[in-house]
Specification:
Layout: H1 20-35, E1 54-56, E2 62-71, E3 76-81, E4 87-94, H2 101-115, E5 125-130, E6 134-140, H3 147-154, H4 159-178, E7 181-182, E8 191-193, E9 199-201, E10 208-209, H5 229-232, H6 242-257, H7 267-276, H8 289-298, H9 309-312, H10 342-355, E11 367-368, E12 397-398, H11 404-413, H12 423-447, E13 464-470, E14 475-480, E15 485-489, E16 494-497, E17 503-510, E18 514-521, H13 530-546, E19 563-568, E20 572-577, E21 582-586, E22 591-595, E23 600-604, E24 610-614, H14 615-621, H15 632-647
Antiparallel strand pairs: 1-2, 2-3, 3-4, 4-6, 5-6, 7-10, 8-9, 11-12, 13-14, 14-15, 15-16, 16-17, 17-18, 19-20, 20-21, 21-22, 22-23, 23-24
Helix pairs in contact: 4-6, 4-10, 6-8, 12-14, 12-15
Length: 649
């Protein structure tokens, strides 16, 4: 959706549609453009002629065309009204501009992606149709223009306003990313105000679906001021969801400082400044240090160092004054938020997050654009039958879901009652959250170069040094770096045989109490546990005979530690231990353990040497000292994602 006028849009009455005055003004404007001596490259949107006053669809429906709302590089946008009086925005693309199959596929992909979106902060897709000349995409109308129009009038915005805007934008982006959609053209001009002054993300012309199993896209695209450095790095590098995060930082900077951070008269210079991360904060602008800290982190050249949507919301900047809503007066004047108390702001912050789908969210199924979705039934037509008006059939296929956790989330989405969470699940989620909070603190400390690390490494963490997955029959067996042997049985209970070879713990995973442990002697087990004891003894002998330890060093014995939960996926195996540490064994045989509530990282090399470091020092150094080959940033990002996934209850 495109909107370039200087005033908020007014919904047209029937008498105003196609008025002679409007057409004369438009003709004078067009004439003025023709008389300009400087010749510019013709936009594809110029091929889109003004639609007839009455637009007739192939199905017989009629729409009355109103005034032009504006134009972009590929399309023009008009107000149109149906026979019930409802007014929409019609993104209009000339068929003459669809010159080849690639262009057609791009258009159909845009329609498919946008049609699959359903979020309060995304412009609602209404319908699409074609006549002999144009293709029309009907969208909800946003009569109060865009963030770009607002910034042009106001020059600068206040921080409370921008906080409110950022929550709504983040809500929309997190939703898109949950569907594995990258927008790739987020900018002030593509974010619009609805009648209640809520923001709506629009224009999915450059959006792409990242299929499951693929981590990057390689098309170089975007708007110069907003393009992320990894896009400029070329097709050999590729880009992913983080390009949308980068755009958030650019927009936040522009709203607070009046212009984008890398702006220049020449596009080439803009690109060079982006590559060099060459920007600064004007000293004459009264912007808080907390806002600058967030912008700095988002505009990290390395995409893996940019905070995620959830991490952005944890920044101190959001603890400032926060309005519950924004009045229309902001379109012309600076609002006063001095009345807001900290308690009111905190409640408003929560309420706006909730309205934007950021509180108690349910993960959405990713979408998949099928080749069959992009095929027309007749060569002369642009739109396939599946996209014609009145067809309520699903326009995209949901990915097949087999993960039990995902099934549970989907069951919540369709209003069925999911199983109750156990006490153990709550404890594990809390420990994941505590570790994430510790990581966030370390990341902030790492950026403050003047501070020194206060973390003292007093002991080595307990590690899973050997393991055998025999869950198809008994369970998951492991040996710890304390030389204790454990089996996590398929029923969730654990038997842990201590290194002395005599004492054992039998640990019951109780849904109401958590973990309950009883002590026994291995040679004098109750009759009901003898079978479990035999299995532990079997795996004890097997691992000692056949497997090597992951580390050459043993851990000091303190409190007894056992494996609470494990997760196997393609990039790694994740172990969650009862002392609150998390171990990740990666496929390339490098291993990382994060302990002490996210403040200490232990690296275990393929040669089985183990070294522990304060996380702050690793972040400042840029990786594990002496081991740059392990790609720490990439692995660290995967670890945070895994913790974040398990911290959601």
């Amino acid at each position: 959706m495109v909107n370039t006028r200087g005033q908020p849009l007014q919904v047209l009455g029937s008498k105003e549609l196609n008025s002679r005055t409007n057409l004369q003004a438009r003709n004078q404007y067009d004439q003025h453009r023709i008389e300009k001596p400087k010749k510019k490259k013709e936009k594809l949107s110029s091929l889109c002629k003004t639609p007839p006053s009455t637009i007739k669809t192939r199905s017989g429906r009629e729409y009355n065309r109103g005034s032009c709302l504006g134009e972009g590089g590929f399309a023009r946008c008009f107000q149109i009204k149906d026979d019930t009086g409802r007014v929409f925005a019609a993104k209009t693309i000339a068929k003459a501009s669809i010159k080849n199959e690639k262009t057609k596929t791009k258009l159909l992909s845009e329609i498919k992606i946008h049609k699959s979106m359903s979020h309060p902060n995304i412009v609602q897709f209404v319908d699409c149709f074609e006549d002999d000349v144009n293709v029309y995409i009907l969208l909800e109308i946003c009569p109060n223009q865009s963030l770009m129009d607002l910034l042009k009038r106001r020059k600068l915005l206040t921080e409370p306003e921008v906080r409110h805007f950022m929550i709504q934008i983040i809500g929309a982006i997190k939703y898109m990313h949950s569907r594995r959609v990258i927008h790739r053209d987020l900018k002030l001009g593509n974010i619009f105000f609805d009648p209640e002054m809520n923001l709506k993300v629009g224009d999915f012309g450059l959006a792409a679906v990242l299929p499951q199993g693929k981590s990057k896209k390689y098309t170089i695209c975007g708007t110069p001021n907003y393009i992320a450095p990894e896009v400029l790095a070329g097709k050999s590098v590729g880009h992913s969801f983080e390009v949308d995060t980068w755009s958030i930082g650019v927009m936040m900077y522009a709203l607070l400082f009046g212009k984008p951070p890398f702006q220049s008269k020449e596009v080439k210079e803009i690109y060079e400044r982006i590559k060099e991360n060459d920007y600064h904060f004007p000293i004459d602008k009264d912007v808080s240090d907390e806002a600058k800290e967030l912008i700095t982190d988002i505009l990290s050249t390395n995409p893996l160092r940019r905070p995620t949507m959830d991490e952005i919301l944890q920044y101190p900047w959001f603890k400032g004054p926060f309005p519950s809503s924004l009045p229309k007066d902001i379109l012309v004047s600076e609002p006063d938020f001095s009345y807001l108390t900290p308690q009111e702001s905190l409640q408003n912050f929560y309420n706006v997050q909730k309205a934007a789908g950021l509180v108690n969210t349910v993960s959405k199924n990713p979408i998949e654009i099928l080749k069959s979705d992009l095929e027309s039934e007749k060569p002369k037509k642009i739109l396939p039958h599946s996209l014609s008006p009145g067809n309520a059939k699903s326009k995209y296929r949901e990915m097949m879901v087999t993960d039990p956790k995902m099934i549970r989330r989907i069951s919540a989405e369709i209003n069925t009652t999911p199983p109750m969470l156990s006490k153990s699940d709550e404890i594990l989620a809390k420990e994941c959250l505590e570790t994430l909070n510790g990581i966030n603190i370390c990341q902030r400390q790492a950026r403050m170069r003047s501070t020194t690390s206060s973390v003292q490494i007093t002991s080595k963490p307990v590690l899973v040094s050997k393991w055998v997955d025999y869950s198809n029959k008994h369970g998951f067996s492991y040996q710890l770096s304390t030389n204790d042997i454990g089996v996590l049985f398929n029923n969730g209970h654990t038997m842990l045989k201590l290194a002395n070879g005599k004492d054992v713990w039998y640990i019951i995973n109780d849904s109401n109490e958590g973990w309950i442990a009883d002590s026994y002697v291995i040679d004098n087990l109750p009759s009901g546990l003898k079978r479990e004891g035999e299995i532990v003894n079997f795996f004890d002998k097997y691992m000692k005979t056949n497997l090597c330890k992951v580390s050459n060093e043993d851990s000091d014995r303190g409190d007894d530690v056992w494996l609470r939960r494990y997760n196997r996926c393609d990039p790694y195996v994740m172990f969650e231990l009862s002392d609150g540490s998390f171990q990740f064994n990666f496929r390339d045989h490098h291993k990382l353990c994060i302990s002490s509530k996210g403040t200490i990282v232990t690296y275990i090399s393929p040669s089985r040497s183990a070294h522990s470091f304060p996380l702050v020092d690793i972040l400042r150094y840029g990786g594990i000292p002496g081991h740059q080959e392990i790609e720490f940033d990439k692995k660290f990002s995967m670890m945070k994602d895994a913790l974040r996934e398990k911290a959601v209850v």
